Structures are given as structure tokens and as C-alpha cells.
């Protein structure tokens, strides 16, 4: 069976002097990137230094204030909607999170239904229900395989509640959900948060494999791994009133963002 990435060409990311400012100050500024399609890009820096805002800006979900960036040739901020269509979010707190009350199966079914609604062709809608179910199942299986999530290893297989998942299992699920969209750019926040050394190595191996399969990966972390092709380091840039970079730009996402 084909990988979900066999038809995917990763998005090149280029940026120069890229910056985003919120009501209370700069979230980040002066960022430069030149990442080829299929790169694993680590966004490293201390918590509150604008890492998440950079991830959201490069996926078309927050509007930059200075400099320029292109994602798969789409200029930001002019083509934010186009960038959103080709990118997908894994775990991003407050933006793209798992519902702890849902089971793994419920999350997967919901994502497939949403994907069918937004990108289904007229021809696809005319297919028989049995064929649509088979195609959805195949898409889920491919995404789970790419994310390395073995449902048989979970306490209740796909009926396991999200609240019962280990941190690494939850990360794999969010990656699988994103890959169902077959994005050209996958963005993941807090990649190494609350992981043991072994789990951290497994998480980076997962993202490396996704990038090697063709999808460009943008991953926020506290410390960049050896597996990364490119590392972008964010630093404090002086948000006003004692706010962190992330807090200073929080309102910007409320007005321009979309998960």
C-alpha cells in the first residue's frame, strides 16, 4: 500500500528579517530560514521566546509584521489562506489539542470526516458508501503507520481514551491526525516537553522519518536534536509590561489565526 506521503512534495520555507508583533511587543523578529522541501526544521529557544508564534506565522495562522517569508512559493502574509491549506498542525497548545474525553477512534473518525468535507471532489462524493469507508480506513491506517502508532499496543486499542495515552503516544496520535490531511508542511509544538531521553529520541526519529518521506517538518523544542537539518533559535526581544514574547502576541492569533 502506498505511503500517505507518496503523493506529497514537501514545502520549501524561506524567510528573511521575518518578525511578528503583538499588542504588547514583539513575539519574534529578524528570523531567517532557507529550508528545502522535506527538511526537518527545529525551532529552539526558551519557553516564551516566540517559538510557537513563529510556527503559527509560518503555517499561515498568525500575521507577520515585518520581513518576508515564502512557504511552497506562497508569499506571507498575502497568501496566508493558501499556506493554511497545505499545512497541518500536530500538537499546539491552545490551538490544536486532543480532547481528553475522546477515544483514539473518535479523533480519527472526526478528522477523516472533516478532511472529506473540505477537500472531497464531486467524483469522490459519488462513490459508494462502502468504497468511501474503505478509502477512509486506508487513509487512517497509512497515517497511523507513518506516525508509528500501533493501536494493538494501547490499553483498549482504538477505544482507548486520550487521557489514558502516554505523552509519546499522544504525540504520535497528533502527528497521525495531521498526516491524514497529507500536508506539505507539518508543524508540531513542544516536541520534547515532558519526555524521557528515550522518548525524546523516539519523537525525533518519528519526525525525521516523516521528513524523509517528503513532508517538511517544523518542530518547536527546547533543545535542537542532531537529526534536524536546520535549527532556528528564538530569543527574547523585549515584550512590554513584563509579558513574554508569546503572551505579547496572543491577541494576534485571535484575530488572524485559524487551526
Automatic annotation (TrEMBL):
Gene3D superfamilies for this protein: P-loop containing nucleotide triphosphate hydrolases
Location of the ABC transporter domain: 13-259
Alphabetical list of InterPro entries matching this protein: ABC_transporter-like_ATP-bd (IPR003439), ABC_transpr_LolD-like (IPR015854), P-loop_NTPase (IPR027417)
Superkingdom to which the source organism belongs: Bacteria
Matches recorded under SUPFAM superfamilies: P-loop containing nucleoside triphosphate hydrolases (SSF52540)
Name listed for the protein in its UniProt record: ABC transporter domain-containing protein
Organism: Streptomyces violascens
